[in-house]
User: What shape does this take?
Amino acid sequence: MSDAEESDSNIPYFFPDERPIRFTLETFPHSAAIKNAAGAPWACAVSPFTDVGGPADGDGQRGPPRPVPIDRVARCEECFAYINKFSEFTSRFWKCALCGHMSRITQELSRYRDRRTFRSLPELTQETVEFELPLDSKGAMMRNGEVLLENGYLAQEPAAARPVVYLAVVDESGGPEYHDVMAEVLDTCVQRLPDDCRLGVVTVSDRVGLVDLTAPLPHVQLVDLGSGTGAGGGGGQGTAGQPGGGGGSWTEPSSAVGLSEVMSLEELLCPIGGNRELISANVRGLRGACRDAGAAATGRAGTRVTGLAVKLLLDLLLGAAPGPAGAGATSTAGGGRDAKDGRVGAPGRRTSTGASAAERGVGVGGFAFAGCRLMLFLGGAPDRGPGAVGVVSPAVAGGGGGDVEAEGFVHDQLFRGEPRALGFYRGQAYRAASCGVSVDVHCFANKTCGHFGLSSMAPLAMTTGGGVYRHSLLHQREGENRAVTVAREVCAELLQPRVYDGLLRVRTSAEFNVNRDGVYGNLTADPRLESLWHVASCYSGQSFAMDFEFRGAGGGAELQWDEDEDASATVQSAFAYTAVVPDADASSEAASDNAINGGGATNAARMVTVRRLRVSTVRTDSSPSVEVVATAADPATVAAVLAHKVVSEARRSGFAEARGLLRDWLANFISGLAESLEASEGGRESAIPGGGGVEQAQALMANPLIVGVARQVFGLLQSPVLHPTKGIADERVSLLSRLSSLDPESLSIALYPEMQGYATPDIRLANSLSLSRQAVTEASPACRIFVVDTFWRVVVHYADSPVSLAAGEAAGEAPLPFPPSRDSAIGQYLEMRRAVRPLAGQEVVYSRPGTPEAFFFEETLLEDRPLPRAEKAETFKSFFAEIIRDVLQTS
Ligand SMILES: [Zn+2]
Assistant: This one.
């Protein structure tokens, strides 16, 4: 490559793909037999809230025009799919693109009657469209779990009247460092949350307290938990072989009062607008009102009833009456009762019962919220009462060398969580998800507490669209205020725009459907209705994975296939959600109105809470040729779906099983592809010679699709999520919760980082380089700078060694600018990445050979890193070669 060569603008950047629905196989298999022969999972990744024409984000601009009310949009009489751009029309009927049913164009559907204009309607021209739903189910009818409108309904409300609420649970006995961070986190939230939000703070230790944020001085109202909490406190004597087991003898006291008897939800949640200074002073002074706050966290058992606090808060949020029979808090083992509890506040959009108020986040006394983020800030593991997890010694939690197998067993146990606590939190998660409450779990590891039992608490976050985060208060860098750094991390995630109370439905062509046992991601299946999921909160790009299966006896259905016609399959996602958006109708008058309500945002548009429905419809080809189907695999989506499946297998049966499964799966995929490419007629580039010889092995190892998928699998095996001994359980769970909501593109980079090569900071020469020393050597000296995006951070590595630099200098060459300027191609790339991937790690490390930072670059070369001892193969090269050998031997 010569210096004269310009940076190639055709080299793609790897950024989130904004397609709302992506398939693992871009051409669908015609039948189950073809699907099996192709050897790849047949599934989709759904990102229901990608940025396609979404609501404006409160930047002071007027919002997009109001979408069309849903009752003016046609739906199939047979399968209830929404009319879409693939629908066909006759004079009086329209044909459903999913089931083929002919529905009548009735008088009410006048928008489809005007022959001159109807073809330009958004729902008949765009892949993704938004419709308006009623904010309350009042005046709406139900059909099949979804709302139909009647005339006259509430379409929007001022955001202050139906706010997004933030509820923080603070650990009284977290210790001084913990309280420093909490003061910082809460105050940053108070400063940065919009005016129309509300914030509430609850304290927990062996007691629960509600904080009055409007009091002139920090004031905590204690809740009477009855006598039951005093005696028989949590055990927490978990041992290495048997982690967990805490809180065994605890039963819920019959005398416990509901939180509402101490403070109403409306009193607990303080409006931010107009109260910023008061709240700020109160959260900064909260530590003084906490017991034990001065002492270091002791890690002694029986100090935290965190699980009970969660249950009581959900009672309050759901407006449900508390009582001894509530929420599976008894010592019943397993999750049976808990699951049942989730069904009591049955989700859905019923119109007449009190339950519907709770479902839509309307608490006691009619206080309504748009959505809720319940934030648990743990200073130690919950070790008393319902949801107690065992206390594990730091040596066990951290994994301390020694026997890999024994250690692996302990890691398995910790990763899977403690059954009773898991059951309890699952039950609470169902309740939360069905009413738009999303739970985040943050823990702060310090010298005395390293294990928080996050694997048991994970369902709380991972079925409600929330996240699990482990922050370390240790390892303070020089000159760093750790509390400020951690607070920044917490708030960056917390303030990310979200929509709430989501309901996702996925409809498909009649020949196949979503396999209800194969749905992955941070969502909850509706207990009553098929193909309906609750997504308590969702950020732009948040993704879910769903397996498809053929319908009919034994999956015997087949997609229609006709040589002369396009054989196609259609998938439609419908995502209903509540959001706070700028008021499209707002005048300048309204804007000045807002200024009076306090806060600094005087120029902001008036914000309103709305309910919307986003419908995306995509269509794809299908084929009866195994070769066509297998070669249409999309590596990123395949990897995303595999990652979900394998991790859920690891939680069920342990790491060893999961790793074996992943390896088998890769062999299957390669074998399917090898067979189809071999069997097909030769003369084409993709054809691979048969015979099982060296030539075939080489051809397979050079096939870009096979290499792409194999690298992703290797990356997954290297990842701490699946590594038998790497990473402690809490860290793994935190990583897992992040990975399981990523879009396929981001996930594939997190598994196998993206490396670009640059000749100078301005000239990009290559992308998607292999992550090995050999590849780096081969790309040099044309490439002198390597930029690696690991999703968690970016490493910018200057490859010139001190010797070559000195040689260059002696020859009169100017050294490359270090670090690259903001105007350079690298600088612009970093800028662009920040904008499109705000949730990715924003740290940028600049490194040179021989500097301490070079470690970060070396670490990214994962093909050279050996897999754990249990695997026969070592580096990627030998791993890949061995799989290919196995495939050829068995075929
Ligand atoms: Zn239909």
Q: What stands out?
A: The chain has a mean pLDDT of 79. The domain at 1-13+751-860 is CATH 3.40.20.10 (Severin). The radius of gyration is 28 Å. The chain has three domains: 1-13+751-860, 26-57+127-154+499-623, 164-496.
